[in-house]
Write a structure and sequence with these properties.
Layout lengths: L13 H8 L6 E4 L6 H22 L7 H22 L9 E5 L4 E7 L5 E8 L5 E4 L3 E5 L5 E6 L3 H11 L5 E2 L1
Parallel strand pairs: 5-8
Antiparallel strand pairs: 1-2, 2-3, 3-4, 5-6, 6-7
Helix pairs in contact: 2-3
Keywords: Membrane, Transmembrane, Transmembrane helix
Length: about 180
């Protein structure tokens, strides 16, 4: 009994011919870049001030050193330390999600790191369910069927723009 060779391509086989289309297609990953606004700068300065003040509280001479006052100082310094760390870590680069454009599955996925550091899918949309893609100078906007913006991504180079545009051409309506 002869063994079947499943690795050979059969002419006219739809699965074999569609695999050939995606041989040179690569997935594209883009990071969401934060807007540097007054709010993010203010939160970082506030967080740094809270962390520093939790340590300075012990250096500056204060009132008497009775047990109740030391316990209150300890509670306030621990509270200020944790609040300062939380406020300053709100816009940390590791907390930002990634947009993953998959040409084989023909979908875009938004991945965010979980508490254990593993990527977790937050949003998954097929290319067919996207309304349109709008390319601007340094950004790309993906819109829903009703015209509302799903996501806005920053593009760092012309190569990224060209690769994404060529991947989405013919699949999603491209405006400008």
């Amino acid at each position: 009994m002869a063994a079947l060779d499943t690795s050979a391509r059969i002419p006219g086989d739809a699965r074999a011919s569609s695999r050939g289309i995606f041989d040179d297609a690569i997935p594209l990953i883009f990071n969401f870049k934060p807007d540097v606004t007054f709010q993010s700068i203010f939160l970082r300065v506030l967080g740094t001030a809270l962390v520093l003040s939790s340590a300075i509280m012990w250096i500056i001479p204060g009132a008497s050193g009775d047990a109740q006052m030391v316990l209150m100082k300890l509670g306030m310094s621990v509270f200020m330390l944790f609040c300062g760390l939380a406020v300053s870590m709100m816009n940390h680069p590791d907390a930002r999600p990634d947009a993953y454009f998959d040409p084989i599955r023909r979908e875009v996925r938004v991945l965010q790191k979980s508490n254990r550091g593993r990527p977790q899918t937050v949003l998954r949309r097929s290319y067919d369910s996207l309304g349109a893609v709008r390319f601007q100078d340094k950004t790309v906007e993906l819109t829903d069927m009703d015209g509302s913006i799903l996501m806005r991504l920053s593009l760092s180079s012309a190569e990224e723009r060209h690769a994404l545009r060529s991947q989405l051409t013919g699949v999603v309506p491209i405006t400008s």
